[in-house]
Design a protein that fits this description.
- The chain is built from 11 helices and 10 strands.
- By secondary structure, it is α+β, with helices and mostly antiparallel strands.
- The strands form 3 sheets. The protein has a 6-stranded mixed sheet with strand order 3-4-5-8-9-10.
- The longest helix has 16 residues.
- The protein is globular, with a radius of gyration of 20 Å.
- The N and C termini lie far apart (49 Å).
Length: 251
């Protein structure tokens, strides 16, 4: 957090500590557990409510704070997500960022949260989607989460006045990423295990999502922090997505 909010060549850790202690005095934040020697800070339920009421962050599940969060493993995951954002570009190469962004299709019941959505400084405010696996989920569940993005990208909506020949459009392009011409690339970052085990997990994921019709790049957190290249395991193919997912009925 200190690296993100303070200027270049400045150490803002003492400022962040003072700010977090002030929030703790107000009952809005608390510490539960540590990541190495560093305490893990969480919002209390009152802190979550204050942010939700201010329309700055979406409300999170109750297990996302306090001792429940630490027992559920959310604390280290949040630290790893921050490390991922900083390794990808941090404040130098990003214009905006959101975490825990919900993507849902009401008609199909599909709903999932993206760990981070990062905006790049391009003319179209291009965004990238980021999923971080901290080594806590099964290989099958990780693959399903990646396939959920294709299901989300493949959903189309019908538009047109009643009694006319309307058209269908990708739901994501109409309602979420209207300035994007292609579905945002998904980056999957693997962490939380020894590096040789992460490499094995990377290869297994590539096999599990073979043939997926969205752009998917994968890397391990250690490789990303060293500046090593991504592995492309999925290619954006809107025509193939359209064949896979049924067209919505007209009015």
């Amino acid at each position: 957090m200190a690296q993100v909010i303070t200027k270049e060549d400045a150490d803002g850790r003492s400022y962040v500590r003072r700010a977090m202690n002030k929030l703790a005095e107000l009952g809005l934040a608390e510490t539960n557990g540590k990541d190495g020697k560093h305490p893990i800070w969480n919002l209390t339920p009152a802190g979550q409510k204050a942010l939700a009421d201010g329309n700055e962050l979406p409300p999170r599940p109750k297990a996302g704070t306090g001792a429940k969060a630490v027992r559920a493993g959310f604390g280290p995951h949040g630290v790893a997500v921050t490390d991922m954002i900083l390794a990808y570009g941090g404040r130098k190469h990003l214009t905006d960022r959101q975490v825990e962004v919900n993507h849902a299709i009401k008609e199909t019941g599909l709903s999932f949260n993206t760990d981070a959505v990062l905006a790049l400084p391009t003319k179209t405010s291009e965004v990238r989607l980021f999923e971080l696996d901290n080594g806590t989920m099964s290989q099958a569940r990780l693959a399903k989460e990646v396939w959920d993005y294709e299901r989300y990208a493949g959903h189309r909506v019908w538009e047109g006045a009643r009694g006319t020949n309307g058209r269908t459009f990708p739901s994501w392009q109409r309602h979420r990423y209207a300035r994007s011409t292609t579905f945002p690339r998904l980056h999957v970052v693997l962490a939380g295990k020894e590096e040789h085990l992460l490499d094995n997990r990377l290869q297994a994921l590539a096999a599990d999502v073979k043939g997926i019709a969205i752009a998917v790049w994968v890397n391990t957190l250690p490789r990303l922090q060293r500046g090593e290249p991504w592995y492309e395991i999925g290619v954006d193919d809107p025509d193939r997505r359209r064949r896979r997912y049924p067209e919505p009925a007209g009015r």
